[in-house]
């Protein structure tokens, strides 16, 4: 397993070594010992989410109100996507920083999102399947969003894609406006 620490404090990319033979491919995107070695604790799975998207679907930037907060472990089970993590934790040493990971079924990369970070992905192919392991169950009243096209963030979205966004994401505030409304988590509430 190859591990890369992301530009966002506490975020990691995990790339397993797929085993290929005449039957196909075996890959283990989440390996407990590698995860614990990098992050320092086990991943507490409360729910698994499975999302199928067409090319151009842009989902996010999403996060969960903290507390309770939510950690995510995300991988691409089919297709290709550009996955983005943004640090929105007020007081974090990497507040406002982001990192991007190309997700596909050639490398089987996975990304760990600690509490208080926002997540977005862009499907680069039709029928792209993203699977998330999450640390808390889905609770609609805790779900938050920031504009994934916020020019102040300058996220590396490709220019040749016509974005398809939900109504929720279309009207989401930018990072600065969300901070002004008291929507952003405190770093101290996200660690530990």
CATH topology: Jelly Rolls
Q: How much helicity do the residues have?
A: 10-25%
CATH homology superfamily name:
Jelly Rolls
Any idea what the radius of gyration is? Answer: 16 Å
Query: Distance N terminus to C terminus?
Result: 25 Å
CATH class membership: Mainly Beta
Order of the strands making up the biggest sheet: 1-2-10-7-12-5
User: Proportion of β residues?
Assistant: 35-45%
Structural class of the secondary elements?
A: mainly beta
Please count the helical segments: 4
User: CATH architecture, please?
Assistant: Sandwich
Order of helices and strands: EEEEHEEEEEEEEEHHH
Per DSSP E runs of 2 or more residues, the count of β-strands stands at: 13
The biggest sheet amounts to: 6 strands, antiparallel
Overall 3D shape: globular
Write down the domain tally.
1
Low-confidence stretches: none
Mean pLDDT, to the nearest integer, reads 96
Descriptive notes:
With about 190 residues, the chain is mainly beta. The two termini are about 25 Å apart. The chain has a single domain (about 1-190), classed as Jelly Rolls. About 40% of the residues are buried. It contains four helices and 13 strands. It has helices at about 30-40, 165-170, 175-180, 185-190, and strands at about 1-5, 10-15, 20, 25, 45-55, 60-65, 70-80, 80-85, 100-105, 110-115, 115-125, 130-135, 145. Helices cover about 10% and strands about 35% of the residues. The longest helix has 8 residues, at about 30-40. A six-stranded antiparallel β-sheet has the order 1-2-10-7-12-5, covered by helices on one side.
